[in-house]
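Homework help board

Subject: predicted structure for assignment chain

Our instructor gave us this sequence and asked us to write out the predicted structure in token form, then describe one feature. I got the tokens but I'm not sure how to describe them. Can anyone check?
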Amino acid sequence: MKHFLVHNCNFCGAKNIRFDVLTTTMHQSPYDSSATYWQAFCQCSHCKKGCVLAIHGGPNFHILNRITHIESYPNLCILDKTNISDHFKIFKIIIPPNTKQVECPKYVPENIQNIFDEATKCLSVNCYVASGAMFRLCLDLASKNLLEKWICENSSNVNQPNKDQKEKLYNRINFLISENVIPKRLKELAHCIRLDGNDSAHDGTTGEHEALDCLDFTEALLTEIYTLTEQINEANRRRLERRSKS
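My token output:
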């Protein structure tokens, strides 16, 4: 086959083996709306097993694109005068999930969103222990952010958090609930995440049901803390804008 890429095969272990490209599809980058990449559906020339490789333009891509405008072609196998590997680079192997990955609630800080996405990615491929530990980390990071914000806004308050409340998740949650930073109705949810996450981190006993509980609890907590709060702020901003124009 004329069109191929060179990569290591994780099925048979062959190094720098030729992967025959059967077809490609073009997609928009989730990180840059102006950038595109291709998914190449390939077959290892040694063991004949298939995989999907994500590729984008390499060092010589601009030369080919100037001649052929290939950046607008979904199927790169139409190239008849050059090979795909001459102008494209592999940047990752795409592994399809076993189940749909749940999106992070809106307006969650990027560092917490990254952990949530990692947790749901683990859950989508049935890695329940890892997902439980990541959901607990979401709670840990969110509660630390909330505590730091509270301290900045209440520096003159005599009721400052002690060392255990700053460092230990259980105590931190209770402090934030007592100060109404986390609504009291979420107390049970928050501690369920903490306990199930502990099972993952320390005992490795988290199963599918526990992992799904962690997902539900974490999603509800992040929605309450970040999404609903920002939605209310946006509604207030729109109200003020309407009043200023009247």
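Reply (TA_rk): Your tokens look well-formed. For the description, you could write something like this. The mean pLDDT is 88. That's the kind of observation they're looking for.
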